[in-house]
Amino acid sequence: MAVTESELERMAAELGEALLRQGWLLATAESCTGGWLAQVVTSVAGSSAWFDRGFVTYSNAAKQDMLGVRAETLAQFGAVSEQTAIEMVRGALDHSAANVAIAITGIAGPSGGSPEKPVGMVCFAWAVAGQPCASTTQNFSGNRHQIRAASVAFALKQLQTRVR
Fold it and tell me: How many CB atoms are closer than 10 A to CB 141?
């Protein structure tokens, strides 16, 4: 079942309430979602009280320049990997005033997949200041829009569990 824009906005509003309760700011580092997570977050009125900034790092060069992802990591593991997502999320925390950050990198399709990294494979990483990073890989199905929407929904759900 496809997630709707209104569902994403409801989830973002709930996340914002939790961030406000904690007194925390959020930063996002996005690749395959192209800033969609930041867009959904900023669609919530008053989000400036809990959203610091978003990084859209679609190219490898942007991941390196803006977030400090190491060339060695990209060469060894690729842009779509938990290792890269972890370096992206660390960079988002390091280059912002945020207390919590998320990174998303994946293959939304319709092309670009391989047997090892199929279309729909998306890697996520989360970081809360002063705590170890967490990461996971999910495989979503559907078209490009559905994969990206599912990625944003998954990110919001996972952030909610880490902010409470």
Answer: 10
For each of the domains in the chain, give its residue range(s) and CATH number, in order of start: 5-163 (3.90.950.20)
Three-class DSSP labels, 85-122: HHHHHHHHHHCCCCCEEEEEEECCCCCCCCCCCCCCEE
- Tens of pLDDT along the chain (164 residues)? 589 999 999 999 999 999 999 999 999 999 999 999 999 999 999 999 999 999 999 999 999 999 999 999 999 999 999 999 999 999 999 999 999 999 999 999 999 999 999 999 999 999 999 999 999 999 999 999 999 999 999 999 999 999 98
CB 73 within 8 A of CB 33: no
Q: pTM of the full predicted structure?
A: 0.96
Q: Nearest CA to 57 among 79, 31, 77, 80?
A: 31
d(CA 118, CA 134): 22
Terminal alpha carbon distance of the chain: 27
